[in-house]
Amino acid sequence: MIGNKQQPLAERLRPRNIDEMVGQQHLVGPKGVLRHSLESGMVPSLILWGPPGVGKTTLAQIMAETVKMPFATLSAISSGVKDVREVIDKARRQEKTLLFIDEIHRFNKGQQDALLGAVERGHITLIGATTENPSFEVNGALLSRCQVYTLKSLEEEDLKGLVRRALSEDKVIAPKNLEVAEYEALLSVSGGDARKLLNLVEIVADALKEGGQITNELVKKLAQQRMALYDKNADQHYDLASAMIKSIRGSDPNAAVYWMSRMIKGGEDIKFIARRLLISASEDVGMANPTALVIATNAFQAVQAIGYPEGRIILAQCAAYLASSPKSNASYMAVNKAMRLIDATGDLPVPLHLRNAPTKFMKGQGYGKGYNYSHDNPGNFAPQEYLPEGLEGTKLYDPGDNQKEKHTREWLKYWWKDKYGY
């Protein structure tokens, strides 16, 4: 049996070594790059990027314990430059320290710059955890000194395995001999977040008597009543962002502005909201109203310059505009089809007539030969093959059923006749 009764279940079941890690086998499995680093006794400065509850904090703790380094942790939500410098000063005076910074994307430039010198001089090994793309949120100088590793969402079987482990091994819960009759609510309410899942299991276990069964109905009932008490620091902004985007996608400007306002009231980073709107402008509105991307881009730039509170007006205008626009995910579907096609067919060679020929040698090899310059033709259109050999006639972009793309479909059909089935 494992666990200290005074700790939450998620802490009682936290893995103590790399072999107990759930998921992330591409990093910690037998051929994983981080396992190799630990076995060599060397931990580089790195950024762990992934959704909440997939093991970023746990992995940092395991790495520090494995290489026997002093371990310090800071939260970018509550720590300032002073806190960073105190850790660095202590590491410089005493011993090189592994410094873990949760939510590192929330550090401003000054805070990140304070880390840079210590990383360069080797006083600290930095492990930053972020749910945001580090290319956008970590300054270039610091990012260039860190390896970036992506943690994946946990698979359904991984999550079920955590539940089974809690019911069979935890010192508090195991004696109750509980059974899981249905997993659906446990998995959907926790949203793939292992920490939320274990908090939820603890709530349900507390409510059940010995030999009880965990059902969907019970889970939903208890989650609504008590989940907030167990997860006060949850990443609720993901739920609110999801509601805002789905309201935009559903063409409801009222709901879109409401959920956006909830995010603002909760103290959400203005760039986080603007970035979600920018993505939605292309993913959900797309070619049905290409101006939406222009509006969202300008909104993103404007709120960075203005900030709160006036930035809320710009965000509201953008959210209302996107929600009120006709919708098309045709571009989104096209790029996904293209990615799957590339996975299936590999790196097919560029046809010779489409290749650039800046040298005589390349021209002699046939580069550019037979290329028909579109603007030399009526309507600025040249009927030639643009896809690699073997993919001729493959349609990736299929215009949506909206006024703008109906015209696009007719235009493509006129020029391409029946080649792509428009």
Give helix % range. 40-55%
Report the top-level CATH class of the largest domain.
Alpha Beta
**Helix-strand sequence:** HHHEHEHEHEHHEHEHHEHHHHHHHHH
CATH architecture of the largest domain: 3-Layer(aba) Sandwich
DSSP summary: helix tally? 20
Rg over CA atoms: 26 Å
| Major beta sheet summary | 5 strands, parallel
The shape is globular
Mean pLDDT: 85
* CATH superfamily heading of the largest domain: P-loop containing nucleotide triphosphate hydrolases
Q: Kindly estimate the percentage of residues that lie in beta strands according to DSSP.
A: 5-15%
Query: What is the domain tally?
Result: 4
Q: Total strand count, please?
A: 7
Distance between the termini: 64 Å
- Order the strands across the largest sheet as they lie in space: 2-3-4-1-5
Features of this protein?
422 residues; Zinc Finger, Delta Prime, domain 3; alpha/beta; globular; two-stranded parallel ribbon
Structure characterization notes:
α10 (184-190) packs across α11 (194-207), α11 (194-207) crosses α12 (216-230) and α15 packs antiparallel against α16 (291-306). The chain is globular. The protein has 20 helices and 7 strands. It has helices at residues 9-12, 25-28, 33-39, 56-66, 81-93, 109-121, 134-137, 140-143, 156-169, 184-190, 194-207, 216-230, 236-249, 253-265, 270-285, 291-306, 311-324, 330-345, 360-364, 403-416, and strands spanning 46-49, 71-75, 97-102, 124-130, 147-150, 179-180, 213-214. The chain has 422 residues and is an alpha/beta fold. The chain has a 5-stranded parallel β-sheet, sandwiched between helices. The longest helix is centred in the middle third of the chain and has 16 residues, at 270-285. The protein folds into 4 domains: 23-150, P-loop containing nucleotide triphosphate hydrolases (Rossmann fold, 3-Layer(aba) Sandwich); 156-230; 236-324, Zinc Finger, Delta Prime, domain 3 (Up-down Bundle); 332-416, DNA polymerase III clamp loader subunits, C-terminal domain (post-AAA+ oligomerization domain-like, Orthogonal Bundle), CATH 1.10.3710.
